[in-house]
Amino acid sequence: MAYIGLEVGGICQQGSGELWVRNSSAKRNSNCSEYVNRTAIGLRVKDGIVLAVEKIIHSKLLVPGANRRIQSVDRHIGMATSGFLADGRHLGNRARDEASNFRETFRMPPPLKDVVSRLSMYVQAYTLYSSVRPFGVSTIIGSVDKDGPQLYIIEPSGIAYGYHGAAVGKGRQLAKTEIEKLKLVEMSSREAVIEAARIIYLVHDDAKEKDFELEMSWIGDETNGLHLPVPKELHAEAEEKAKSALETFD
Amino acid sequence: MPDGSFASHPQERQFNPYSENGGTILAIAGADFSVIAGDTRQSEGYSIQTRYAPKVFRLTDRAVLAVNGFAADGNMFVKKVKQRLEWYRHAHAKDMPLKAIARLIQTMLYAQRFFPYYVYNILGGIEEDGSGAVYSFDPVGSYEREACRAAGAAQSLVQPFLDNQIYFKNQLAAPNQPHPVHLPLSDVLSIVIDSFTGATERHIEVGDGLEIYVVLAHGRSVQGLEGVPGVQELTTSGEGDRVFVIRRELKKD
Amino acid sequence: MTHITLTLCTNGQVITRIHLQKEYNELRTSVLALKFKDGIMMAADTLASYGSLARFKSIQRLQPVGSSTVIGASGDMSDFQYIQTLLDELTVEEFTAGDHHELGPAEIHEYLSRVMYARRSKMNPLWNSILVGGVKDGKSFLAYVDLLGTTYSASTLATGYGAYIALPLLRKAVEGREHELTEEEARKIMEESMKVLFYRDARSLNKFQIATVKESGVTISDPIILETAWGFAEGIRGYGAQTQ
């Protein structure tokens, strides 16, 4: 049997395709197969949310920008996933369904905590039965809703907590250390984009790993409350600064 | 009221799912061509809704469909016929033959027998044997192949004119000079244009613009179309049957 | 409103009758629209009547959909609000696809006409006449759809009473000049037509809004209140203070 145990903290897929389920949440993602569990971070700042992921280019034949790991859930909600891309897409679809169902019922934009509670219940349900496997993704989900900027992580176990700064995936330990140094509550979204890019570049291990693409989105006053990709110019600027920061860091 | 009910009767707005949007269509078959035409006015009651709403549609390189009656039904019906023809193309890698389209239209109309498409259809084009053909339908699908047919608001004005000019009804042939079975294209085009200018004069729901589709059989020359102002070919291959359109203004009052 | 009445029959039996007595808040008055050089312009007053009662006097009947389309509705108010939520759900769905495509006016109109035709075919229509206008990829679009699913397109359109009173004025001013009319000229034509409508249509208000769609996007004006003069009515019997 590929599936073992009921107490679940995370899952991994080994090269053989064998599925592993363990209840250690701390070490969970670091042992997973090479290219699926890349770092994703989220920053909740003064006026908005920034999401960033390190997306490994596992083939030079890929079209630039393909296989996006950041999705929109509603106009004002975005999510980034680390783990199996297909599971991430599935959770994205579910999140969109939950958000639109909330809209239909209450005729208002869903507050993030409601979407998170519904989505995490869904994720949790997949830990309960021997007929299904849990989702192999950690999700960072962010929004600017009626209560201002909000940021959550949903674990494969179904656990969901709110954060000021979030990091999941392979480089999350280093990323968290870096995020802790930031004064998030005083930071603007624009500054956060620069910092997010820097952190992703920092946690990426150039020597060991393949090429990567930086994917970033934001929500805030600058986007009129919409979840949108970071505009080209700002993206380029952030990438530029991240690269030069990396040189001084070394 | 003594019985305790409300003075005003329970009032539920009666909904009529149909409307009439005016206009007229006609089609005439030649020996190796077919002409299908319609005006472009769309109206409701005494109001002109628009001066340009096409009622004649090219289905394939050899079939043209004219639809008249309730415009919403007409547009939906054409949309569904086109969809079925596309599916046929995907399944068989060729266009559906004209007589098969005619039978398809009957089936589709009759499927709505108890909530009909309030539409009169006239299908024109070229048969597989290369002859010009016209099929006319009633709203629930009964159909026949004819040499000519008019339908719509001015049917009662145009059909007798066609009977006279195409079938030579009430015309005595000169001795040793029998009436022709098929008219040449140029004569047919004149008859079509005269029909619509006439209908425009005498019917308030006809006017604004005229679209005449001409389908020529494979290998036929464009004789009868040369020199016609504003004629435009819609087919691109240059082989097989060809479809042309001629647009004319009609009086707008 | 549903009224339930109890009727006592001659044999003493009580019959319960349910009257479905429908009263509607109606957006009865017209919506006008025209094409001009740089796009389209649409106007509607801010009234929702309840029968002959001017029930709501500050209702917005022009609604932007996406960044290149505006719709204007007359007819039943609750049905229009339902349509608004449909379109909102649709635009959210399209937005979250994240494919950098947006529905333009032609797509919105096609969607609406499908919804309207489907509902009429279920004998449960959405009781509205709707104008859809917009500009996308340099092409301006203006079309109509109603409770029957009837659609059409023209350079000037009007719903309701406006189709009788304002449309001839609009056609005279616009037809053949769609590519010359400036925004200012278009606005003047609109204001004049709305004024005429207010004078002639009892269920209308002299407070209205104008929506403009150009390549640059949608703008909907604040409510405009037109100056009207009723001095002429003094001399007409049946108006004013005369008793005889």
UniProtKB/TrEMBL annotation, chain A:
Keyword Zinc present in the record's keywords: the answer is: no
UniProt entry keywords in alphabetical sequence: Cytoplasm, Nucleus, Proteasome
Among CDD domains, the record links this protein to: proteasome_alpha_type_3
Spell out where the chain crosses the membrane.
none
Biological process according to GO: proteolysis involved in protein catabolic process
Q: Where in the cell is it found?
A: Cytoplasm; Nucleus
Metal-binding recorded as keyword: no
Cellular component per GO?
A: cytoplasm; nucleus; proteasome core complex, alpha-subunit complex
The UniProt entry lists the main location of this chain as cytoplasm
Q: What does this protein do?
A: The proteasome is a multicatalytic proteinase complex which is characterized by its ability to cleave peptides with Arg, Phe, Tyr, Leu, and Glu adjacent to the leaving group at neutral or slightly basic pH. The proteasome has an ATP-dependent proteolytic activity.
What family is this? Belongs to the peptidase T1A family.
Could you identify this protein by its name?
A: Uncharacterized protein
Identify the species of origin.
Hermanssonia centrifuga
UniProtKB/TrEMBL annotation, chain B:
Intracellular or extracellular location(s): Cytoplasm; Nucleus
InterPro entries registered for this protein in UniProt: Ntn_hydrolases_N (IPR029055), Proteasome_bsu_CS (IPR016050), Proteasome_sua/b (IPR001353), Proteasome_suB-type (IPR023333)
Q: Which PROSITE patterns match?
A: PROTEASOME_BETA_1, PROTEASOME_BETA_2
Name the keywords, alphabetized.
Answer: Cytoplasm, Nucleus, Proteasome
Q: Does the keyword Transmembrane helix apply?
A: no
Keyword Nucleus among UniProt keywords: yes
Give the residues annotated as coiled coil: none
Per the record, its GO cellular-component terms are: cytoplasm; nucleus; proteasome core complex, beta-subunit complex
Q: What is its main location?
A: cytoplasm
Q: Which GO terms describe its biological process?
A: proteolysis involved in protein catabolic process
Against Gene3D superfamilies, the record matches this protein to: Glutamine Phosphoribosylpyrophosphate, subunit 1, domain 1 (3.60.20.10)
Origin: domain of life: Eukaryota
PANTHER family per the record? METALLOPROTEASE TLDD (PTHR32194), PROTEASOME SUBUNIT BETA TYPE-1 (PTHR32194:SF2)
Q: How does it assemble?
A: The 26S proteasome consists of a 20S proteasome core and two 19S regulatory subunits. The 20S proteasome core is composed of 28 subunits that are arranged in four stacked rings, resulting in a barrel-shaped structure. The two end rings are each formed by seven alpha subunits, and the two central rings are each formed by seven beta subunits. The catalytic chamber with the active sites is on the inside of the barrel. Component of the proteasome complex.
Describe the task this protein carries out.
Component of the proteasome, a multicatalytic proteinase complex which is characterized by its ability to cleave peptides with Arg, Phe, Tyr, Leu, and Glu adjacent to the leaving group at neutral or slightly basic pH. The proteasome has an ATP-dependent proteolytic activity.
- Similarity comment: Belongs to the peptidase T1B family.
Quote the protein name from its UniProt record. Answer: Proteasome subunit beta
UniProtKB/TrEMBL annotation, chain C:
**Listed GO cellular component terms?**
cytoplasm; nucleus; proteasome core complex, beta-subunit complex
Instruction: Return the SUPFAM superfamilies for the record.
Output: N-terminal nucleophile aminohydrolases (Ntn hydrolases) (SSF56235)
Family matches, as InterPro entries: Ntn_hydrolases_N, Proteasome_beta4, Proteasome_bsu_CS, Proteasome_sua/b, Proteasome_suB-type
GO terms under biological process: proteolysis involved in protein catabolic process
Q: Where, per UniProt, does this protein localize?
A: Cytoplasm; Nucleus
**The organism sits in which domain of life?**
Eukaryota
Note one Pfam family from the annotation: Proteasome
Name the UniProt key words of this record, in alphabetical order. Cytoplasm, Nucleus, Proteasome
For this chain, the family text in UniProt reads:
Belongs to the peptidase T1B family.
Q: What is this protein called?
A: Proteasome subunit beta
- Species in which this protein is naturally found: Hermanssonia centrifuga
